[in-house]
Amino acid sequence: RKEGEKRAVREMRVPTFVETEAWLSNHGASFATLLVLVLTNVVVCWWGVWEFTSPHWITKSNVLRYTLPIARGAGRLISFNAAVILVTGSKTLWTLLRKTPLQLMFPIDDVMPKFHRLLALTAIVMGCIVHTIPQIVNYATQALKLGPGVWTYGNGVAGTQLLVTGILLVVVFAVFFVTTLEKIRRTTIGFRLFWICHIVGIVMAFPLLIIHGTMRGHPMTVYFVGVPLGIYVVDVVARRIIFKTKLSGVVSAQAFDDHGEKVTKLVLRREQGEYEFKPGQYAELLIPELARFEWHPFTIASPPSDEGTITFYIKASGRWTTALYELAEKEKLGDADDGRPLKARMRGPFGAPAESFSGYPHVLLVGTGIGVTPLLSIWLSLANDSWKGLVENYDAEDVKIKEAKKHAIEMTPSKYSAPPIEMNEMLKTANMLFTDILSLKQGGVSLVDHRHGAQQRAAILSAWLESLTCNVALFTCTTVLEALVLSLWIGEQWRPTQITQIVATWFVMPVFGLKIALSLVAYGMRYLVSFIFVLEVLIFSGAVASFVLTLDVLINNNDSSTIWYLLTFGVYLVLHVIRIMLIFYATARPASEVTRAREKAKSESLLTAHDSVRAIWVNKSVSGMSWVMNRLAESAGQVPPHYALELYATRSSDDEVMSSSPFRASADESGVTQHELKAGRPRWHEILTAAIDRAHASSPHDGALVGVFYCGMPAVARELQNIAKLVTIQHEHKLAASARPSKCNCRIVVHKENF
User: Fold this and answer.
1) DSSP state of 140
2) Do 135 and 164 contact (CB within 8 A), yes or no?
3) 158-163, Cβ contacts within 8 angstroms, sequence gap of 24 or more
4) Helix (H, G, I), strand (E, B), or coil: what is residue 305?
5) Which runs of E-coded beta strand occur in 628-670?
6) Tag placement on the chain: N or C end, fewer CB within 10 Å?
7) DSSP alpha helices (H): ranges in 52-150?
8) How far apart are CA 360 and CA 407, in angstroms?
């Protein structure tokens, strides 16, 4: 498949720039964050190594001369990564940040579990291997002798507590690693082990790290984890206040079994006005009868409009979930006359990637297996504001509505053709989108209509300098150079530090100087009064100040300016981070699209705020969909024609699918319906191509975003991301190769939840 994608790109002769832009649309923010983490780890590790390197630290032991720098560098990494782990585990913090524009500037979807796991793995490897092996050598060769005290200032005598706390930390880290393995977590008692070891491990690990991480009388670990630990404690307290625990009664619990695929439908009581949530969010459940202290996270599968109840679909895949299934299978539970009462506690709701679906005019919802639950909540929520109910008020236009419905169903990607764009209208796609970001509108819509000659060329070059490729490349180069500068400065290599600093500033000044000049020529006063002008002038000024101060130190040996050139360039880096986050925001969500869609929804009663919605559920068999099939069939007749629901049964035959279709009732008199039950697997390339074509047809000049929200196995998530990149490239190539070439801002953004 990968070779086929590469071959398709080569055959199209797509420029590398276009291919890179398509990849960065989905991975740019994650790449930039990972880059910062890696470089910070490098600098922190070198800091630890340098502290025990000659001539700063001298020892007569030939063993300690090599082992202590390695152990200390690894120790610094343990402290740093443990600190950041606390921030990634602050559930309340990230749930609240999802409600802010930061969700589009920063890869919040990857914080948990991607970055959380990466940081934890780094700390474990550093703690159990890189830090431990040199210390074993030290104790085995008696290069380090045990003695009283915390640390005796590097005279070759280690406090006994270092050995004791070190051994305990290795045990804690090893248990952490083993219990997080999927093969362990999926066993009968695996999740309970994982949960208990996580709680006990956190309580033990940080006090041990603080004691063990004391160096030369200074509690070095406290300097790293002090603030993050405070954030985490506040987060846990806020979790109990903001996300209050609610004791609820079970309305019903039904068990469904399809050839070993066991699912429990759990419906809990929810009083009106209580436990407000958004479609796509999740909650934590505790059922005392199953386990008194275990909280388990599950996506809320019902829409907020369900009065009095909240629904969860829970697959039996572990000890707790299997016990719940067996309980629902053996006896009738609930508050009915013949049901046995059962109590459950809910905590939440917490943020999830799918809750941001409302920000996209074109939405593709994808769920595989039990991963359909976010799709259910969103789809049923959309269906609640039903097109069918609105149509009942328009008897006079009944024929017109049917024609519109039929046309929407039969429309194919080939029917979407963008109107030609003249050269002087190129600015409507290569535009000042970023410049207008704080005014929440897409710049191309309000640009001066006519530009010619140098002004037009300046605008196009300025737009190129605002591209993801250009900015991520510049950000990568400057952060790498600055990490090198800091490393050289820590190592007291003054002349190389100054030369590298000059190179770093020369990398920045021409780019931003050119960007400011081009934007002034192209946009004049409009650019001069924008926020981006102020930001770019500050960035340029910081780079110039750093260059001048560095030159002063280099030529005049003015050591008093050393710290100032580092600080000024540090300010530049902070401003550059802000700038690139705003570019990620502008790329992920041209807000004018949402505003335009909302206004259209208010003015036209037959349209919603979404131009198109397509929901796809992939499951093994038709019978395996029985636990929610009736609810989906009811909703099928309540949505507008540009909403489509498709169910795929990968292991069912065509005959079984045809006889089991639940969508016949939603068809009109001629049998036309936009909803389908199909055998086999989805053709993702065709689906995503149709989505981006529809997005382009809805907004050929400004461009439109397609938001893909996926929940399921990681392999399908990776496939969707790769195909989204390929389809974006092909779409760009198709427009560029047309009779009247044009540029398009249409993109596919993939949000994923992996289970």
Assistant:
1) H
2) no
3) 161/211, 161/212, 162/212, 163/139
4) coil
5) 643-649
6) N
7) 64-88, 91-97, 102-105, 108-110, 116-125, 132-140
8) 23
8-state DSSP, 419: P
Rounded to whole angstroms, how far apart are CA atoms 720 and 708? 9
**Do residues 395 and 318 lie in contact, with contact meaning Cβ atoms separated by under 8 Å?**
no
Sheet containing 296-299: give its strands across: 296-299, 282-286, 343-350, 246-258, 261-269, 309-315
CA dist 383 and 377 (Å) reads 10
Report field, pTM of the whole predicted structure over 0.90: no
Confidence of residue 427 (pLDDT cuts 50, 70, 90): very low
pLDDT at 748: 87
Dist. CA 692–CA 725, nearest whole Å: 11
What are the percentages of helix, strand and coil residues in the chain, rounded to 5?
60, 15, 25
Which residues are paired to 263 by β-bridges? 256, 315
Q: What number is the average pLDDT over the span 657-686?
A: 73
pLDDT tens digits, residue range 239-276? Answer: 878 777 788 888 888 888 877 788 999 999 887 777 78
> Nearest CA to 280 among 444, 422, 489, 99?
99
Cis peptide before 148 (omega within 30 of 0): no
567, with CB counted inside 10 A (0-12, 13-18, 19+), is middle
Sequence-separated (6 or more) residues with CB below 8 Å from residue 262 = 255, 256, 315, 316, 322, 325
Q: Say which residue the tokens 């830090």 belong to.
A: 131
What is the mean pLDDT of the segment spanning 731-749?
73
Both tokens of residue 271? 């009083």
310 contacts 249 by C-beta, under 8 angstroms: no
Q: Where are the alpha helices (DSSP H) in 427-530?
A: 443-446, 453-465, 468-490, 494-523, 525-528
Q: Are the beta carbons of 371 and 352 closer than 8 angstroms? A: no
Both tokens assigned to 685: 């390339």
Longest dimension (CA), the chain: 97
Q: Is the dihedral of CA 117, 122, 123, 127 positive or negative?
A: positive
Under 8 Å between Cβ of 733 and 12: yes
Q: Beginning with the edge strand found earlier in the chain, give each strand of the sheet holding 747-754 in spatial order.
A: 676-679, 643-649, 612-619, 362-368, 705-712, 747-754
Q: How many CA atoms lie within 13 A of 56 on its CB side?
A: 12
337: how many CB neighbours lie within 10 A of its CB?
5
CA 156 to chain centre: 47
pLDDT single digits (tens) 81-101 = 999 999 998 888 888 888 887
The C-alpha atoms of residue 317 and residue 261 are separated, in whole angstroms, by 9
Give the DSSP H/E element, type plus range, for residue 596. Answer: helix 591-603
Res. 597: pLDDT tops 70: no
In one-letter notation, the amino acid at residue 676 is E
Give the Cα separation of 122 and 77 in Å (integer): 8
Query: How far apart, in whole angstroms, are the C-alpha atoms of residue 137 and residue 189?
Result: 37
Contact assessment for residue 679 and residue 720, using Cβ atoms and an 8 Å cutoff: no
**Residues 675 and 666 sit within 8 Å (Cβ to Cβ):** yes
Task: Look up residue 754 and give its two tokens.
Answer: 């992996």
Is 655's pLDDT higher than 70?
Answer: yes
Task: Give the distance, in angstroms, between the CA of residue 708 and the centroid of all CA atoms in the same chain.
Answer: 12
Q: Alpha helices of 181-271 — where are they, by DSSP H?
A: 182-185, 190-212, 220-242
Helix (H) or strand (E) segment spanning residue 548 = helix 531-556
- For 431, 433, 597, 740, the CA distances from 444, given in Å and listed in that order, are 5, 6, 17, 19
d(CA 697, CA 450): 24
**Predicted local distance difference test score (pLDDT) of residue 78:** 92
Cα(295)–Cα(192) distance, integer angstroms = 10
Neighbours of 605 (CB within 10 A): 12
Give the CA-trace dihedral at 153, 158, 161, 167, to 10 degrees.
130
